[in-house]
Each structure stands twice: as C-alpha cells, then as structure tokens.
Amino acid sequence: MAYEKNNNCDECGKELNFPFDTYVCSYEFTFCSECSEKANFICKHCKEELLPHPEGNQSE
Ligand SMILES: [Zn+2]
Ligand SMILES: [Zn+2]
Predict the structure, then answer these.
(1) Spatial CA neighbour of 32 closest among 11, 49, 46, 47
(2) Which of 1, 11, 50, 54 could serve as a FRET partner for 23 with CA atoms 20 to 30 Å apart?
C-alpha cells in the first residue's frame, strides 16, 4: 500500500488545501481552520495546541 499524505481534516474529513488552511498538532493530526476554531485550537485527540502548518504560513 502506498503511503498517502493526509490531506484531509481529521475532524470533518474535508479535503484540505494543504499546507494552506491547515492546522497541525505535535502528533501530526491535521485539521481545517474551521474545525480548529471550533475546538479553540486544541487538538481533541492529544490536547495539544493546534498551530498553522508552517509551510502554509510563510509571510514572504
Ligand atoms: Zn474540518
Ligand atoms: Zn493531536
């Protein structure tokens, strides 16, 4: 089975515009911005903070 990068929100299953509009926790769960906001940016699986994916958050 080929390795697939998870490009879907782990909460609602929505396809993500990875790495944009993508939030991750330190255990590499991925969430869309909508679900992240609803969860107050706390991962419901590991209770870690959800942060914008660094590659989707470049200022330049
Ligand atoms: Zn979602
Ligand atoms: Zn997590």
Answers:
(1) 11
(2) 1
